Amino acid sequence: MTLAGFKSIFFWEFVHRLLGRLIGLAFALPLLWFAVRRRIPPGYGWRLVALLALGGLQGAIGWWMVASGLSVRTDVSHVRLAVHLITALVLLSGLVWTALDLRALAESRLAAPASLRPLAVAALALLFGQIMFGAFTAGLDAGYAFSSWPLMGNTLFPAGVAFIEPIWRNAVDNPVVVQFIHRWFAFVAATALIMLALRSIRQGAGVAGRLLIWLVVLQIALGIATLLSGVQIVIAIAHQANAALTLIAATFAAHTIGRAKR
């Protein structure tokens, strides 16, 4: 690594850590203020504290991830990278869900928190699974393995792949297998998310439901574009950012059906 390369990595790592601390303060200080003034609605105090604690845990996981690169290998563990990303997105989803509950409470003092319906659980679980494989793909540089679509080279699954033993490790550590799973599991997750969107549209959240459908379509298009571009960083970042937007929209849709009467 050149000195210029190290400076670039250091800059982004420094900004990332500083931003994490600022976000923590931006959440903790108002929470303390509202707690002292007894302005937190009943039943939400512990939930907000739990979200703050999850933010602190996310910082610890970040260090755990970085520590994996402070050895003979200088690249961080892709598994720890995935844990770091998933924890961040669980926190994001929890914040959105809580904000929607509080908005409903502001509109009616009798509003109860929304519940997670089975369809929402399935759709969100599949989305988190797909994002996890996206993190594996990024951490293993698996996107560089094949830059063609829909085939990997000339076949659906390339011949002559060197498999790892035990066989289950291929889904985690084999770049070719990880890319294959990330390519096609996307359509499983997309199907569940579109079903969730359609349910939310039927229950009154037309704008949010349609937005979720368009974000899912855009996410698949960005994933394909990332491959075909040879993993251009701008497209890859857009793909990751849109995953977060898709999660926000999915959380909104899940909350909508969770508030609807059975």
UniProtKB/TrEMBL annotation:
Annotated pathway: Porphyrin-containing compound metabolism; heme A biosynthesis; heme A from heme O: step 1/1
Residues annotated as transmembrane: 18-36, 48-66, 81-100, 121-146, 180-199, 211-235, 241-258
GO cellular component: mitochondrial inner membrane
Subcellular location: Membrane
Keywords linked to the UniProt accession: Heme biosynthesis, Iron, Membrane, Metal-binding, Oxidoreductase, Transmembrane, Transmembrane helix
InterPro entries with a match to the protein in the record: COX15/CtaA_fam (IPR003780), HemeA_Synthase_type2 (IPR023754)
Membrane topology listed for this record: Multi-pass membrane protein
Cofactor(s) listed: heme b
Organism of this sequence: hydrothermal vent metagenome
Substrates-to-products reaction catalysed: Fe(II)-heme o + 2 A + H2O = Fe(II)-heme a + 2 AH2
Cited PANTHER family: CYTOCHROME C OXIDASE ASSEMBLY PROTEIN COX15, CYTOCHROME C OXIDASE ASSEMBLY PROTEIN COX15 HOMOLOG
Protein name: Heme A synthase, cytochrome oxidase biogenesis protein Cox15-CtaA
GO biological process, one term: heme A biosynthetic process
GO molecular function, one term: heme A synthase activity
